[in-house]
Design goal:
Number of strands: 6
Shape: elongated
Distance between the termini: 25 Å
Radius of gyration: 21 Å
Strand content: 5-15%
Number of helices: 13
Order of helices and strands: HHHHHHHHEHEHEHHHEEE
Helix content: 40-55%
Strand order of the largest sheet: 1-2-6-5-4-3
Length: 343
């Protein structure tokens, strides 16, 4: 859906602001400063998305020399639409590898760090683990079938030992981590509330037992009724960059509700989610998170239950920590079916 296309529930003022956001992205920097969006009466969620959309559009369509004058003055605070727009611009420029070595941009980024702006946590350059962000490869879209999953990832074996260990897992509820883990899907407007669950084990799990037989024994809502529909659940070994890319895409593209967040915040939400899956503290340096990720075991699984819609997109990950006594599961599903039918 295009930025200016009418959406269900839009008021005339909503459409006008969206059209104006598109127009602003086509103007020079001086005009942008004079006519900065959004209007003061715009709902917070809508105004955030509009600013992020303007920033993404500017970086895609304007030369750096047109954008750089926006950073002539340093901010006094971390809030307000003018500061937020510039923070998003820096985030979008980082994703395309632009702006490095520009003193005004680097000074602005330094000030945002001093002020504690959330985007200032992100590096000014794309990390190697982020190499797939916003990259489309023909034939590598959403994984929707067991055959697609098996063709792209090595299958993890199903073992009796895994089933026994799964039955011994204990719930370890952590609402803060759950919210951070699920945020890419909530921000992106995915149709169903994601499931983020945490479990502890009484003894270390054998690496060979971390597979679908283990996962199926966990008390997960997304697996309720597994086996009652055609198809068998399976799990495949994946890597942190695959997980991070899917988390980024979830909010960058957005779900069927069309709530794409732009590259800067999609990147932030993806990292916050990945760190939550690993149980890392808030604010850990991202390169440290990359180093830690190599010590975890990552699975991508698929199940044929009523929880998953098997429509627009289904995602499910399981993560085993280096002690092999803690497991995290994150599952999400999206569909354009009528919202009243969703649980």
């Amino acid at each position: 859906m295009g930025d200016n296309q009418e959406r269900p529930g839009d008021s005339s003022s909503d459409r006008h602001r969206r059209e104006e956001a598109q127009h602003l992205a086509e103007l020079g920097s001086a005009d942008l400063v004079r006519r900065l969006l959004p209007a003061g009466d715009t709902p917070p969620g809508e105004s955030d998305r509009m600013l992020r959309s303007v920033a993404a559009k500017l970086v895609r369509t304007r030369h750096l020399r047109d954008i750089e004058p926006l950073f002539g003055e340093l901010p006094d605070g971390a809030s307000g639409p003018a500061v937020e727009l510039r923070a998003c611009l820096l985030g979008e420029l980082a994703l395309i590898g632009s702006g490095g070595g520009r003193r005004s941009l680097e000074a602005y980024a330094d000030r945002l760090r001093e002020l504690g702006h959330p985007l200032a946590r992100l590096p000014m350059t794309r990390l190697d683990i982020e190499h797939r962000f916003a990259v489309r490869v023909r034939g590598l879209g959403s994984v929707k079938t067991a055959e697609q999953l098996r063709s792209r990832f090595p299958e993890a074996p199903s073992t009796d030992g895994g089933a026994v260990a799964g039955r011994g897992a204990r719930d370890a509820r952590d609402d803060g981590r759950a919210n951070a883990a699920a945020r890419p899907f909530r921000a992106g407007g995915w149709a169903r509330e994601p499931e983020a669950r945490f479990f502890t084990l009484p003894s270390p799990l054998s690496p060979g037992d971390f597979g679908i037989s283990f996962i199926k024994e966990l008390p997960l809502r997304c697996l309720a009724g597994e086996g009652s529909r055609r198809g068998s659940a399976l799990a495949c070994v994946t890597t942190p960059d695959d997980v991070l890319n899917e988390l980024f895409t979830a909010s960058y593209v957005g779900g069927v509700n069309g709530q794409g967040q732009g590259g800067a915040y999609a990147r932030l939400y993806a990292w916050e989610s990945l760190c939550a899956l690993m149980g890392l503290p808030i604010g850990v340096p991202l390169l440290e998170a990359v180093r830690c990720a190599a010590d975890y075991r990552w699975l991508r699984f698929m199940a044929f239950t009523d929880w998953f819609h098997h429509d627009t997109a289904d995602l499910a990950f399981a993560v085993l920590d280096p002690t092999r006594t803690r497991v995290v599961v994150l599952a999400a599903t999206d569909t354009d079916a009528h919202r009243d039918a969703l649980g």
